Amino acid sequence: QVQLKESGPGLVAPSQSLSITCTVSGFSLTSYDISWIRQPPGKGLEWLGVIWTGGGTNYNSAFMSRLSISKDNSKSQVFLKMNSLQTDDTAIYYCVREGSGTAMDYWGQGTSVTVSS
Amino acid sequence: DVVMTQTPLSLPVSLGDQASISCRSSQSLVHSNGNTYLHWYLQKPGQSPKLLIYKVSNRFSGVPDRFSGSGSGTDFTLKISRVEAEDLGVYFCSQSTHVPTFGGGTKLEIK
Hints:
The complex is a heterodimer.
Chain A: E1 3-7, E2 11-12, E3 18-25, E4 33-39, E5 46-51, E6 57-59, E7 67-72, E8 77-82, E9 91-98, E10 104-107, E11 111-115
Chain B: E1 4-7, E2 10-13, E3 19-25, E4 38-43, E5 50-54, E6 58-59, E7 67-72, E8 75-80, E9 89-95, E10 101-102, E11 106-110
Parallel strand pairs in B: 2-11
Antiparallel strand pairs in B: 1-3, 3-8, 4-5, 4-9, 5-6, 7-8, 9-10, 9-11
């Protein structure tokens, strides 16, 4: 069955970088685009960016200068890297498959990231 | 960015009641290809969001038929015909016609 699972560091110091890996199963990264979305505590959802099946990317303009998304199709993994983290980057980070009608049809469980010294 | 505005913020209901959530976009969600990429998600407490409805009115796999979506242009509605306990949580609308954005959420709770 379709599954996505994020793994991240949990705690990041201010000004440092964040790296999260999303490992997928039940489908191929050559067939589906993958987006990253985050949700600050008690708040709504914010789209960060997408990596397309062909490897191209598109980013939310608010994060373009410090966000990078890449993938390894052979390992079924997608990578998010965000630089210069601040306390307002504290959030649950989700990797999500774009499927039915470009809707986000399957979500990972999310990985909680706290930015704190 | 396209702003998605949901109302109400909170929706107290009795089990078995009908519930209706509104979502309004700041721009038309009709894509140049003629499709309207407006979707609905439910996030239950402690869980990640799950897709309910895609492209305005299409139920995702396994979603009960008591959920229905409608609307066009900039105004959309999600209806739940007979609310069950498992339907409680926060509902989000989202658009992917433009750079994806989400509504602020509507919390469906027991009256």
